[in-house]
Amino acid sequence: MVEVREFRQSDWPIVWAIIHDVVSAADTFPYDPAMSERQARETWLFSPPGLTVVAVDADRVVGTAALGPNRPGPGSHISTGSFMVAAESRNRGVGRALGEYALAWARREGYAAMQFNAVVETNTAAIRLYERLGFVTLCTVPGAFEHPSRGRVGLNLMLCDLSSAPVQSISATTE
Fold first, then answer.
1. Mind listing the pLDDT tens digit for each residue in 142-153?
2. Residue 170 located in a structural domain
């Protein structure tokens, strides 16, 4: 059973290992593959009103999420989230647990929606999960991500409206 809880400083070595593995693969996350541990810590560990959490399975950290406002000021009513799961724990419900926690957190904090700014379009497992959680792809920025084996692929802008109003999908992809 996966439990999601707030990040503790003692979690950092495992969180860093997960971040390093995901980012250095350079195929699903739009961070610099050469990101240092210091840069990862500064990027991933959110301060209030944001929150960093970990997914734990049998007392072992198997995933992490960074949650907070998507933009400051007039855009701060929209939340954002980033999720990473350890390679050996993928396809075991960790991403779903993190996503469900993130959406519940955003609702509890009074956000109107959750927006993902850069979901790599070839990361189909994540996209399918996000769609099951209620996200829609608003648009795709063609060629915005340099994939190591597929070349330039698109980045999806995805949104989950936390109110009752449905969100319409708008495609800006060129064929």
1. 999 999 999 999
2. no
